[in-house]
Design goal:
The chain is of the alpha/beta class. The chain has a single domain (9-141), classed as Alpha/beta knot. It contains five helices and three strands; from the N terminus they run ααβαβαβα. Helix 1 (9-21) packs parallel to helix 5.
Amino acid sequence: MVGRNAPGPVTEAFEEMLGRLQRSFPVDQVVVADPPGTDPERKRREGTDRLLKAVERDTLVVLLDERGEGLSSTAFAARLGRWRDQGTRQVAFVIGGAYGVDDRMRARATQVIALSPMTFTHQLVRLVLAEQLYRAAEILRGSGYHH
């Protein structure tokens, strides 16, 4: 994610969900600094530079973007299960900066997924993603969490 971990209730909820997630599989969050300045193109380019450096070479990359493919929770879980069953060792979910990412990140991404057609703050996107990852893990496990 490009940005920072802002204190507050959304971050607290994210940390709670992250703790739940880590009972199912290892999760690391990587936050790269938001580039300084106000020029949107520069912020997009430099943010993408930082994200690309943070993603390991053999990692499957999923870019989160409101223009991406919309999936139901069960379809998202099925996709994660398929990657797991195919032996995918690491998946990185990428959240761009306030001005998004440039075409290099789109080219690097295996998938572009939308959590919603709406635009959200980075803090809220992290929380929604963490909850959906937890929900997917529970769906794959066959628990009653998802109903």
